[in-house]
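From the methods appendix. Each design record in this collection lists the tokenized structure first, followed by the designed amino acid sequence. Records were kept in a plain field format so they could be parsed without special tools. The example shown here is representative of the layout used throughout.

RECORD:
FOLD TOKENS (356 positions):
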């Protein structure tokens, strides 16, 4: 497969890098947790119960009339190869838990991958919408439209006092988890991030790595999301998160200005050294790739590098993950082979970007 064809098939709409505050905010994501009334929740249901839930949801697909759902496709986990499931995880379309437990789990996915609906993960239904940049309200609007469409044909587990009932008590109420993925090299380099995280946690938010809970903040990329849903409206959750993110954006911009004023030449040198590594290396480990991609993205945002669109960096953060590398190669690769393939893909993609 040629690189151009592989990239065409592998891009998600959020990778285009077009969105408000996209120099710092990579994505906005909304997730709604829902369960079906009169059905055991996934934490205690049997394989037969899971099969029944999946069938109920599958039966609703021909009834969906909302335009974004017109060509939605169902991907059943038990029919996917482990490599394909890993790629879905790397693209943030399904969770690692759904990939690992394939018993009657599924993902409903729109062609542009803006909407993904996990079935039989921690809850019966998890609606997810991902937008580029800081667009939490827009993502929430679409997620609510999808939710309303499904609720026309499915009866949810709902309590007038508690709200939507979920497997995890922290999701009871609105069932809403809102998150933003942010690139914060300035705060990391100025050693402010370690002080900022505890402050964010005190506000009822949580800071995680690039793939959520338990993951590492590779390439200075962090996810910030709400922790509490019970007793708060959807708009309150979005307002609180947006307010904090906007403050973080301002602090990141200030940190970048400080770096430019106090260490401008050293920062520019670091950016171009990383670009040199990316464009010339023949072997590239994942952590080194993430670090260099972060530096180059910062260089683009600060105007040092003008001939590489930042959307390429969004793509490469995902395309250089192990699952994607092996999909591109057409089969399993040993760690060293992945490192070689990663270096090759980065060189080729950067060259394509300059020629675009």
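DESIGN:
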């Amino acid at each position: 497969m040629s690189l151009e064809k592989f990239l065409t098939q592998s891009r998600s709409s959020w990778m285009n890098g077009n969105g408000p505050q996209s120099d710092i905010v990579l994505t906005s994501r909304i997730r709604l947790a829902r369960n079906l009334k009169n059905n055991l929740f996934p934490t205690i249901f049997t394989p037969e119960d899971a099969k029944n839930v999946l069938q109920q949801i599958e039966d609703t697909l021909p009834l969906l009339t909302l335009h974004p759902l017109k060509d939605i496709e169902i991907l059943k986990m038990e029919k996917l190869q482990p490599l394909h499931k890993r790629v879905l995880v790397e693209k943030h379309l399904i969770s690692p838990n759904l990939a690992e437990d394939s018993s009657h789990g599924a993902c409903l996915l729109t062609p542009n991958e803006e909407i993904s609906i996990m079935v039989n993960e921690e809850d019966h239904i998890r609606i997810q919408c991902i937008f580029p940049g800081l667009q939490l309200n827009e993502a929430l609007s679409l997620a609510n439209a999808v939710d309303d469409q499904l609720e026309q044909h499915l009866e949810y587990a709902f309590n007038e006092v508690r709200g939507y009932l979920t497997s995890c008590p922290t999701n009871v109420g609105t069932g809403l988890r809102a998150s933003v993925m942010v690139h914060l090299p300035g705060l990391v380099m100025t050693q402010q991030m370690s002080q900022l995280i505890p402050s964010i946690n005190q506000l009822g938010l949580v800071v995680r790595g690039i793939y959520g809970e338990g993951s590492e903040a590779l390439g200075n990329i962090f996810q910030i999301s709400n922790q509490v849903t019970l007793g708060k409206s959807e708009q309150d959750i979005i307002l609180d998160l947006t307010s904090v993110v906007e403050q973080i954006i301002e602090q990141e911009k200030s940190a970048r200005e400080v770096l430019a004023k106090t260490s401008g030449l050293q920062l520019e040198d670091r950016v171009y050294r990383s670009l040199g590594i990316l464009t010339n290396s023949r072997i590239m480990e994942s952590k080194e790739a993430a670090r260099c991609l972060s530096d180059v993205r910062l260089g683009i945002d600060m105007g040092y590098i003008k001939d590489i669109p930042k959307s390429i960096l969004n793509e490469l953060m995902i395309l250089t993950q192990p699952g994607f590398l092996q999909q591109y190669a057409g089969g399993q690769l040993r760690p060293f082979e992945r490192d070689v393939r990663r270096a090759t893909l980065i060189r080729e993609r950067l060259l394509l970007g300059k020629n675009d």
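APPENDIX NOTE: The longest strand covers residues 25-34.
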